[in-house]
Each structure stands twice: as C-alpha cells, then as structure tokens.
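job 3f2a | input accepted
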Amino acid sequence: MKGLFVLFGESFRNYSNVGGLHRGKDGEGSLELQKEASVSHMNLLNSLNTYDVDILINTYDTKYKKELLSFYKEPIHANFMDKNSCKENRSANTEKSVDQAIKITKENVDITMYDFIFICRLDLLLKPKLIENFLPIKDKIIFPNVMSIVDNKFRMHQKGNFCISDVFCIIPKKYYHILEKKRILRHGAIHGLYDLDLHIDKDIDFFTYNLYVANTIQHKNPFYKMVNRPEGPETFKNWHTKKFNKKLLKLEPNNS
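job 3f2a | predicted structure (256 res):
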C-alpha cells in the first residue's frame, strides 16, 4: 500500500502573537519551529509502518531550503514558489498554495500509484492524539472538523453556510477526481464537493465531530497546533457544548 503526503504553505514563519496576519519568515527561531512541525509529520509517516509513503512539498522560497529537505529525508519533489506572491493579510494565500501544490503534484508524480493522499499545512504540528488515530485509507474524504453552520440549517446553495477546518484532508484513491477542481481545501470546501455530487456521510467525513476553530491561536486543539503562534484557550465561546451530527447535518448538544 502506498501513500503520498502533500505538504503545502509557508514554512519557517516567524513566531507571532497575531496568528494568520504576520507573514514574516526566516527570522530568529523560525528554523526550530519548522523543525518541530516537520518532525511531527515524519512521526506520522513512521507510524504508518505498513505503508510506503512519499512526500511532496510546495512552499515559498526560503533561505532554509537545505534544512527543510533534510527534515524530510528524500522528498520526491519540492517546489519553492516566489515569495513575492505571498501578500500581507491575504487569506487567499492558503487557497493559492493548496491549488499550486495539487498542480505540482499532478505534474510531477503519477498519483494513481497511491492509495491515499494526505494534504497538510507545513506549519502544522501533529499531536500524538492525531497520529495515534490516523487512518490513512477510509472510503471517504476526511476533513478535520466542522466549525459552524449558519442558523444551524444546512443549505448547500448558500455560500458560507457550512464552514469546516481547512488545515488538512485525506483523500482516498476513488476520489482523486476532485483534484481537478480548485479550492478543495478551504473553509467552504463542502459546497464545491456537493457540486460534484459528493455528500457528507456517504462520501465525506470528519476526524472529529467536536467543534474547533481552525486557527489554534483562538482555540486549543487536541490534534494539532500551528507552531508559529501561541495556543488559545481550551474552550471558545460555547463551541464545546455542541457537536456535529452527520446524519442530521446539524449541530446538537455535546453530552460527552
């Protein structure tokens, strides 16, 4: 069985108390922070001892290219985008980086060789709870979790109605056709997948049904953290009182 890790986004970002807005990189301490995240990716890879896993990287240009490649032993391909294409305070940077990573992947490897593809942010530290519960091959596309549903009413044709965490996804081979579509890893990704007649529970599932903010500076997550920012509180607003019911497609009280 073979798998492919596609790691995307900015690497070696400077530590900041304003997560998501500070685009400085390659500064003091950024090498150690990125190594911490990269080691966790390799810990996940090494835990999948029944799989042969390759790594592909798509990031912005950095003075630490040599170090980054060494963290991942021998990635099958690494692409370094022009750092000037990363604009200040642009949430679209993530979408652009994912789209570019998928494009680079399809151009440089035969994805049909792989049984699953794991697409993940480079600055994401994967905690033991994620590594221990990671199932690389399920019969569904896996996202981290639901964040919110407007008015708790599922409306697929209402833009922004359904919001998910966009820091990683797991795609099994039978769903590789979604890689022809852009913006598959974003807060509103479910809307695009529904346009492809892919549905929650039948085709799409979540790593956890508890609610978490994607940005870990706002809300501490038991499965991962962004290494270049402090972790937020254990609870965020009243989110801990709810969970997602994938059968009813709505939020319900979390009694666990």
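job 3f2a | Residues 146 and 164 are 4 Å apart (CA to CA).
job 3f2a | closed
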